Automatic annotation (TrEMBL):
It comes from the Bacteria. PANTHER family: HHE DOMAIN PROTEIN (AFU_ORTHOLOGUE AFUA_4G00730) (PTHR35585). Transmembrane segments: none annotated. Residues 10-130 form the Hemerythrin-like domain. Residues 71-103 are annotated as: Disordered. Pfam families: Hemerythrin (PF01814). Residues 71-100 have a biased composition (Basic and acidic residues). This is Hemerythrin domain-containing protein.
Protein backbone atom coordinates (compact mmCIF):
# COMPACT_ATOMS: atom_id res chain seq x y z
CA UNK A 1 0.00 0.00 0.00
CA UNK A 2 1.64 3.20 -1.12
CA UNK A 3 -1.36 5.50 -0.96
CA UNK A 4 -1.88 7.52 2.16
CA UNK A 5 -5.22 7.60 3.91
CA UNK A 6 -6.33 10.95 2.48
CA UNK A 7 -5.54 9.97 -1.10
CA UNK A 8 -7.85 7.02 -1.07
CA UNK A 9 -10.95 7.41 -3.15
CA UNK A 10 -14.37 6.45 -1.87
CA UNK A 11 -14.39 3.08 -3.61
CA UNK A 12 -11.10 2.04 -1.98
CA UNK A 13 -12.25 3.28 1.39
CA UNK A 14 -15.62 1.52 1.38
CA UNK A 15 -14.09 -1.66 -0.05
CA UNK A 16 -11.56 -1.72 2.80
CA UNK A 17 -14.47 -1.59 5.26
CA UNK A 18 -16.10 -4.50 3.42
CA UNK A 19 -12.92 -6.60 3.79
CA UNK A 20 -12.88 -5.78 7.50
CA UNK A 21 -16.49 -6.96 7.92
CA UNK A 22 -15.60 -10.15 6.13
CA UNK A 23 -12.65 -10.79 8.44
CA UNK A 24 -15.05 -10.65 11.41
CA UNK A 25 -17.63 -12.81 9.62
CA UNK A 26 -15.03 -15.48 8.94
CA UNK A 27 -14.15 -15.67 12.61
CA UNK A 28 -17.83 -15.69 13.58
CA UNK A 29 -18.47 -18.60 11.25
CA UNK A 30 -15.85 -20.67 13.07
CA UNK A 31 -17.66 -19.97 16.36
CA UNK A 32 -21.17 -20.89 15.21
CA UNK A 33 -22.34 -23.96 17.12
CA UNK A 34 -19.83 -23.44 19.94
CA UNK A 35 -21.34 -22.94 23.38
CA UNK A 36 -18.37 -22.65 25.74
CA UNK A 37 -18.08 -19.44 27.79
CA UNK A 38 -15.10 -18.17 25.79
CA UNK A 39 -16.85 -18.78 22.49
CA UNK A 40 -20.02 -17.04 23.69
CA UNK A 41 -18.05 -14.03 24.93
CA UNK A 42 -16.14 -13.82 21.67
CA UNK A 43 -19.33 -14.06 19.60
CA UNK A 44 -20.82 -11.13 21.54
CA UNK A 45 -17.64 -9.09 21.06
CA UNK A 46 -17.48 -9.77 17.34
CA UNK A 47 -21.17 -9.11 16.71
CA UNK A 48 -20.95 -5.82 18.59
CA UNK A 49 -17.77 -4.82 16.77
CA UNK A 50 -19.10 -5.59 13.31
CA UNK A 51 -22.44 -3.95 14.14
CA UNK A 52 -20.76 -0.65 15.01
CA UNK A 53 -18.69 -0.88 11.85
CA UNK A 54 -21.68 -1.64 9.63
CA UNK A 55 -23.84 1.09 11.17
CA UNK A 56 -21.18 3.77 10.66
CA UNK A 57 -20.40 2.56 7.16
CA UNK A 58 -24.09 2.42 6.17
CA UNK A 59 -24.99 5.85 7.50
CA UNK A 60 -21.95 7.30 5.73
CA UNK A 61 -22.97 5.63 2.47
CA UNK A 62 -26.60 6.68 2.81
CA UNK A 63 -25.74 10.32 3.49
CA UNK A 64 -22.61 10.89 1.36
CA UNK A 65 -22.70 8.38 -1.48
CA UNK A 66 -26.15 7.02 -2.28
CA UNK A 67 -27.73 10.46 -2.85
CA UNK A 68 -25.14 11.12 -5.58
CA UNK A 69 -25.72 7.67 -7.03
CA UNK A 70 -29.45 8.20 -6.95
CA UNK A 71 -29.27 11.51 -8.79
CA UNK A 72 -26.44 10.96 -11.24
CA UNK A 73 -25.75 7.27 -11.64
CA UNK A 74 -28.30 4.59 -10.96
CA UNK A 75 -31.50 5.27 -9.06
CA UNK A 76 -32.57 1.61 -8.93
CA UNK A 77 -29.30 0.55 -7.37
CA UNK A 78 -29.44 3.28 -4.71
CA UNK A 79 -32.97 2.18 -3.77
CA UNK A 80 -32.01 -1.47 -3.60
CA UNK A 81 -28.99 -0.66 -1.43
CA UNK A 82 -31.05 1.32 1.07
CA UNK A 83 -33.50 -1.54 1.30
CA UNK A 84 -30.67 -4.00 1.94
CA UNK A 85 -29.28 -1.76 4.69
CA UNK A 86 -32.69 -1.62 6.34
CA UNK A 87 -32.93 -5.41 6.35
CA UNK A 88 -29.49 -5.86 7.90
CA UNK A 89 -30.37 -3.19 10.45
CA UNK A 90 -33.35 -5.26 11.59
CA UNK A 91 -31.13 -8.32 11.95
CA UNK A 92 -28.59 -6.33 14.00
CA UNK A 93 -31.36 -5.03 16.26
CA UNK A 94 -32.58 -8.59 16.87
CA UNK A 95 -29.02 -9.68 17.65
CA UNK A 96 -28.45 -6.93 20.16
CA UNK A 97 -31.55 -7.97 22.09
CA UNK A 98 -30.37 -11.58 22.24
CA UNK A 99 -27.85 -13.34 24.40
CA UNK A 100 -25.17 -15.29 22.51
CA UNK A 101 -26.37 -18.37 24.41
CA UNK A 102 -29.91 -18.03 23.06
CA UNK A 103 -30.96 -20.78 20.64
CA UNK A 104 -31.60 -18.40 17.74
CA UNK A 105 -28.43 -16.34 18.08
CA UNK A 106 -26.26 -18.30 15.66
CA UNK A 107 -29.04 -18.36 13.06
CA UNK A 108 -29.29 -14.58 13.22
CA UNK A 109 -25.51 -14.30 12.97
CA UNK A 110 -25.58 -16.35 9.78
CA UNK A 111 -28.46 -14.23 8.46
CA UNK A 112 -26.43 -11.06 9.00
CA UNK A 113 -23.37 -12.59 7.35
CA UNK A 114 -25.43 -13.58 4.30
CA UNK A 115 -27.24 -10.24 4.05
CA UNK A 116 -24.07 -8.18 4.24
CA UNK A 117 -22.11 -10.42 1.87
CA UNK A 118 -24.88 -10.21 -0.72
CA UNK A 119 -25.12 -6.46 -0.29
CA UNK A 120 -21.35 -6.04 -0.65
CA UNK A 121 -21.45 -8.11 -3.82
CA UNK A 122 -24.09 -5.78 -5.28
CA UNK A 123 -22.17 -2.66 -4.31
CA UNK A 124 -18.80 -3.82 -5.53
CA UNK A 125 -20.13 -5.55 -8.62
CA UNK A 126 -22.23 -2.68 -9.88
CA UNK A 127 -22.41 0.56 -7.92
CA UNK A 128 -18.68 0.99 -7.33
CA UNK A 129 -17.89 0.43 -10.99
CA UNK A 130 -20.52 3.00 -11.89
CA UNK A 131 -19.08 5.49 -9.40
CA UNK A 132 -15.65 5.25 -10.98
CA UNK A 133 -17.15 5.57 -14.46
CA UNK A 134 -19.17 8.65 -13.51
CA UNK A 135 -17.00 10.78 -11.22
CA UNK A 136 -13.42 11.94 -11.62
CA UNK A 137 -10.75 11.05 -9.12
CA UNK A 138 -10.88 14.37 -7.24
CA UNK A 139 -14.57 13.98 -6.70
CA UNK A 140 -14.17 10.38 -5.51
CA UNK A 141 -11.45 11.48 -3.07
CA UNK A 142 -13.71 14.24 -1.74
CA UNK A 143 -16.47 11.69 -1.25
CA UNK A 144 -14.03 9.54 0.70
CA UNK A 145 -13.27 12.51 2.97
CA UNK A 146 -16.98 13.09 3.54
CA UNK A 147 -17.44 9.41 4.42
CA UNK A 148 -14.54 9.63 6.90
CA UNK A 149 -16.08 12.68 8.58
CA UNK A 150 -19.37 10.85 9.16
CA UNK A 151 -17.61 7.78 10.50
CA UNK A 152 -15.62 9.96 12.89
CA UNK A 153 -18.78 11.33 14.52
CA UNK A 154 -19.43 8.04 16.30
CA UNK A 155 -17.05 6.39 18.75
CA UNK A 156 -15.29 3.24 17.59
CA UNK A 157 -16.68 1.38 20.54
CA UNK A 158 -19.92 2.51 22.13
CA UNK A 159 -19.69 2.13 25.88
CA UNK A 160 -22.90 0.07 26.24
CA UNK A 161 -21.40 -2.52 23.94
CA UNK A 162 -18.93 -3.71 26.58
CA UNK A 163 -19.56 -7.42 26.52
CA UNK A 164 -21.15 -9.27 29.39
CA UNK A 165 -20.67 -6.62 32.02
CA UNK A 166 -22.76 -8.24 34.73
CA UNK A 167 -25.14 -9.19 31.94
CA UNK A 168 -26.25 -5.58 31.54
CA UNK A 169 -27.44 -4.51 28.14
CA UNK A 170 -28.69 -0.94 28.17
CA UNK A 171 -32.32 0.04 27.68
CA UNK A 172 -31.88 1.80 24.37
CA UNK A 173 -29.90 -0.67 22.32
CA UNK A 174 -26.58 0.45 20.90
CA UNK A 175 -27.67 -0.08 17.30
CA UNK A 176 -30.73 2.11 17.70
CA UNK A 177 -28.89 4.76 19.68
CA UNK A 178 -25.91 4.81 17.33
CA UNK A 179 -28.17 5.11 14.29
CA UNK A 180 -30.15 7.95 15.88
CA UNK A 181 -27.03 9.74 17.01
CA UNK A 182 -25.33 9.49 13.64
CA UNK A 183 -28.33 10.35 11.50
CA UNK A 184 -29.22 13.35 13.69
CA UNK A 185 -25.64 14.56 13.70
CA UNK A 186 -25.34 14.31 9.95
CA UNK A 187 -28.70 15.79 9.07
CA UNK A 188 -28.33 18.59 11.64
CA UNK A 189 -25.23 19.96 9.98
CA UNK A 190 -26.73 21.17 6.75
CA UNK A 191 -23.90 19.47 4.91
CA UNK A 192 -26.12 18.92 1.91
CA UNK A 193 -26.33 22.65 1.22
CA UNK A 194 -24.63 23.60 -2.03
FE1 LIG B 1 -20.77 -0.72 1.58
FE1 LIG C 1 -24.02 -0.38 1.66
Amino acid sequence: MTQTEDQRDVVDLLSADHREFDRVFTELETLVGQTGPDALRRKRELVDEVTIGIVKHSVAEETQVYPRVEKQVDETEAERSKHEHAEAEETMKRLERMDPGDPGFDTEVLTLVREIREHVEHEEGRMFAELRATFDRDELVRMAEAVQRVKAIAPTRAHPMTPNEAGVRTVLGPVASLLDHLRDAVSGRGKTAG
